[in-house]
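Our consortium's second objective concerns turning raw sequence data into structural hypotheses that experimental partners can test. To show how far this objective has progressed, the report includes one record in full. It was chosen at random from the queue rather than selected for favorable results. The single chain below, 109 residues long, was entered without modification.
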Amino acid sequence: MKCVCGGEAERVKLEVKPYGVSIGYYPGYRCNKCGEEWFDEKTAEDIEQKAKKLGLFGLETKGKVGVAGNSLVVRVPKHVAKFLGLKKGSIVRVEPEGKDKIIVEITRH
């Protein structure tokens, strides 16, 4: 199979890890020139169904920055907090990555 870059794609087993959680290996394609990976439509549907079943689908969200006292606040939706095991009083480390990305790491003891 040809890739859009002009390279040849080979059939391979690809690990699918939404949000860093492995949900298995699925048959897909990998281009030998650019490294692009993709799945056929049926496999993509199977992956989506498994991710939904495991609660790993649709965790992305948009939100607004609020204010609490002299600080800015970013709310974490309930379904994302549940996935992360994040609770009121959890300790997190906040680190900027460039000018347009924030990394929030949960500190677990």
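The partners drew two points from this record. Residues 9-53 form one domain. The chain is about 20% helix and 35% strand. Both points have been shared with the crystallography group to help prioritize constructs.
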